[in-house]
Specification:
It is a single chain. The chain is built from seven helices and ten strands. With 190 residues, it is of the alpha/beta class. The protein is globular, with a radius of gyration of 15 Å.
Length: 190
């Protein structure tokens, strides 16, 4: 794994975006905690994250490239409109999909009709916007373990299986609030 900081990422941004387009699995900071991700349209890369996290069927969420991407690919109505308007922020919105092929079918292997979406209030969202593809966003940990807020505490078993990690220092956060908006009514799940 290559460990870089934001400056190095910015200087070599095209190289890192190309790595992501070609299936790289990477660790990145957000406005909440560190996430592990990949191009959410790349089934093989998504599968790598499933294996790293030991999460066979639990759905993953994505960072959307822009609000319009959410509106084009998800059913946004009722309170869903209000929550999409609150983005960027510390929310993961669970919405029904309009376009099932907007992400790989193993992002939500049990039910490919819904998707968790977010846009962090963080510079990583500009990277995703530039990439023009959604990326997987899930906590950096194995199922049942603590989430990562300090990259120096990255477990060796994960470190050896990712292509690069962006160190943005210690993040004093907790996972995003999950809000189910499938029915159009907000139901807080976490």
């Amino acid at each position: 794994m290559k460990l870089i900081d934001k400056t190095e990422f910015d200087v070599n941004k095209e190289e890192y975006l190309e790595l992501i387009r070609n299936g790289a699995v990477f660790i990145y900071p957000t406005d909440t905690i560190y996430g592990i991700g990949c191009d959410a349209t790349n089934k093989e890369a998504v599968q790598k994250i499933r294996e790293i996290k030991e999460r066979k069927e639990t759905p993953f969420s994505v960072i959307a490239p822009k609000k319009i991407w959410i509106q084009e690919n998800c059913e946004v109505f009722g309170q869903g409109k209000d929550y999409v308007n609150k983005l960027p922020g510390k929310y993961t919105l669970i919405l029904a999909l309009k376009q099932e092929n907007c992400v790989a079918n193993n992002v939500n292997p049990k039910d490919n009709s819904t998707l968790g979406v977010r846009i962090p209030n963080h510079w990583i969202s500009e990277v995703v916007k530039e990439l023009e593809k959604p990326i997987i966003t899930t906590s950096v940990n194995r199922s049942g373990e603590s989430f990562l807020t300090d990259i120096s505490k990255l477990p060796v078993g994960i470190r050896s299986r990712v292509d690069f990690a962006i160190n943005d220092g210690i993040i004093e956060g907790k996972p995003s609030q999950v809000i189910d908006l499938i029915s159009g009514e907000a139901e807080v799940k976490r």
